[in-house]
Amino acid sequence: MIRTHPLILPLLAALCVLMVLFSLGVGTYPVSLATQMRITAALLLPAPLAPDPTWTEAEWTAVVILRLPRVLLVTLAGAGLGLAGASLQGMLRNPLVGPDIVGISAGSAFGGMLAILLDFSSTGLLLSAFAGGAGALFLAWSLARLGRGGGVLPVILAGIIVAAFFTALNGLLQYVADPDSKLPAMVYWLIGSFAGSSLEDLRLAAPPLLIAGTGLVLLRWRLNLLSLGDLDAAALGVRVGGLRWLIVALVATLVASQVAVSGIVGWVGLVVPHCARMLVGADHRRLLPASALVGGVFLLAMDNLARTLTVQELPIGVLTAVVGTPVFAFLFWRSQARGWVLD
Amino acid sequence: MALLGALLAGVAPPAGAGEPPARDQRGAPLPASLPAHKMVTFNSALWMLLTLDQGTDRVAGASASTVRVVTTGLLGKAFPQAARVPDTVAADGFFLPNVEAILALAPDAVLQWVGRNDPAYLAPLERAGLPVVGLRENQSDADYIATARLLGTLSGQPGRAEALVERYQALYAALARDLASLVGERRPKVLYLWKDRPLIPIGGGSFYGALLERSGGENAAASLSRWGAVTMEQILVWNPDVVLLFCCGPARPQALYEDPAWRAVRAVRERRVYKVPMGGSRFADLIEGPLFSRWLAELLHPGLPSRLRQDLRETYRAIYGLTLSDDDLDRTLHARANALSAHYKRFLRETPP
């Protein structure tokens, strides 16, 4: 068991808040720190806006209309992916699983792309992405149950099969999409970006992200029991089957909500729980909140880079993959030296 | 056909046009037996072939994406038979050749892009022994003119090609004179959005970017050297005077006027967002390039005399023998989508339908 400082979680929470405030000041449009602080204060304080504000309409637009919904959405999405990854790894007792591996991301992407192809509304896109993610997970789970003897390996293999199937369907949707009106949106959405984030996206995605995230945090005790193994968990009074389905549904909700507003953002759900585990250990009572906070901070950092490194915005999914793969390789190397810390 | 014949009767290649091209645009010799009677094309050369030949008789096959531009625009009215041209592309839907289908057509020229993924697009055709003619992507005025002359040679219509080149040059010369008369007027900053979700503008060094300059504007995104998406904040930094939306995507000016994120942009405040007309070839080739420039110049400099509607009607009557109705013109000019934008009344019919 790793001994951790009791202040780590409060410090992570403070870092996350600071990162949100910092991110509000980051962008292509120049807004001075003083102006940004005045705008932020005007948003936070209940006093009515001054009739003659000291900022320009463009500065207000940059901070309030463009950055604020995006920063909040990125924070929630990062937290959701961190939580989803930590929960899946705990439930399946395998540090190599993440939402990408078990097919949820590909399934959600299929639902979202289908919605773009069929001109669904934003709400329709969210629901379609959710249905795709849940459907993929259901298929993976059903396929895994065909495996003899149970265990984790069939779940991972089934996830890989289902992900490959949905990836093929995604290719088919791109093939039939109109190259002028649909294909660019699909492709850009598929590689992941928060570029089009709006208040409407935040209104759509925040409730399911918050509800499912809170649900998983409330289940952190039971996840500790599940990570002991099915037999031990059942012996301690846990209804293993029902609990797994509940966790699966909550994870699918988190991932689908994130995919619906920003496309596939890979590696976060896989790498962030490992980083969090290094800070607070494997006890899910601390690991889940830590994964959420590290996920929020990590994704905010990646998004800040995506929108400021060059004049043309980089897709965040590409950045998380570029950063995530070496981090994961390092963790793999470290695990080979010490063994994965699971308990 | 008769009208074009009358228009171009007696046209011989003028002095200065030089010898007809003997090589394609990668330097390879043209097929031995010309003119070609059965051609396959994957690119926008289709539109010029139809214009030169006034029909589809020589077009044995084409990519579905270029045929779709014809059938959904004004060229579809002139050449309804284009809808029956066989599709000759494989999986990617654009330029990847379906070699077996092309071999079955036994063409005497296959027109394909060069420099754009040659190993996938060009090499399979050459391996199959097909008579490939390489075309460079049109990046400049000189490219458009060279391509028109090459297609004139291939289709046995060098005189017609030369007449169209001369017409093109004359129209731009007239526009340049009109613009030169606007003493002291500044060039408005124009942002041409090729896609609106994500925001992908036309950057510098491109043919379309040069068109904006040629039409009396300044490309707001000239600093971009490559194709890619930008942030909305970058557009706030550029703060363009005018925003153009690609002719054939789903974007509408109204959506930008209603979007709070665009409210601080000068073009939106002054209601100067326009959807580019569709025309027959997306308002962009040797025939419609001057029309695009006239359209834009009149919007950027409302002091110019208004004659776009008349020019458009005359162009289609003279070159395609087509009489465009008011409804045709309204559809082409996106009259409904652009009706609420500033200065657009000049392009609308005097008596609303």
Describe the structure.
The complex is a heterodimer of chains A (343) and B (353). Chain A is mainly α and 343 residues long. Chain A has a single domain, classed as ABC transporter involved in vitamin B12 uptake, BtuC. Chain A is 74% helix and 0% strand. Chain A contains 14 helices and no strands. The mean pLDDT of chain A is 87. Chain B is of the alpha/beta class and 353 residues long. Chain B is 41% helix and 10% strand. Chain B has helices at residues 2-8, 45-53, 64-72, 75-78, 99-105, 118-121, 123-127, 141-154, 158-180, 207-214, 232-238, 253-258, 266-269, 289-300, 308-320, 326-332, 335-338, and strands spanning 39-41, 59-62, 109-113, 132-135, 189-195, 200-201, 218-219, 242-245, 273-275. The A-B interface holds A 27-30, 56-58, 60-62, 65-67, 175, 179-181, 184-185, 188, 193, 195-196, 198, 307, 311-313 and B 65, 91, 93-94, 195, 197-200, 223-224, 226, 228-234, 236-237, 239, 246, 248-250, 260-261, 263-264.
The helical percent of chain B reads 40-55%
The quaternary organization reads as heterodimer
CA radius of gyration of chain B = 21 Å
CATH class assignment of chain A: Mainly Alpha
> What name goes with the CATH superfamily of chain A?
ABC transporter involved in vitamin B12 uptake, BtuC
Q: Could you tell me how far the N terminus lies from the C terminus of chain B, measured between alpha carbons in angstroms?
A: 32 Å
> Which pair of chains forms the biggest interface, and how many residues does each contribute?
A-B, 28 and 30 residues
**Number of helical segments with 4 or more residues of chain A:** 14
Main sheet specs of chain B: 5 strands, mixed
- CATH topology name of chain A, in short, is ABC transporter involved in vitamin B12 uptake, BtuC
Overall pLDDT of chain A, averaged? Answer: 87
**Strand content bin of chain B:** 5-15%
Structural class of chain B: alpha/beta
Q: Based on the coordinates given, report the CATH architecture of chain A.
A: Orthogonal Bundle
Instruction: Report strand % of chain A.
Output: under 5%
Q: What is the CATH third-level topology name of the largest domain in chain B? A: Rossmann fold
Query: Uncertain regions of chain A: pLDDT < 50 for 5+ in a row?
Result: none
How many distinct folded domains of chain B? 2
Number of domains of chain A: 1
Order of helices and strands of chain A: HHHHHHHHHHHHHH
Give the number of DSSP strands of chain A.
0
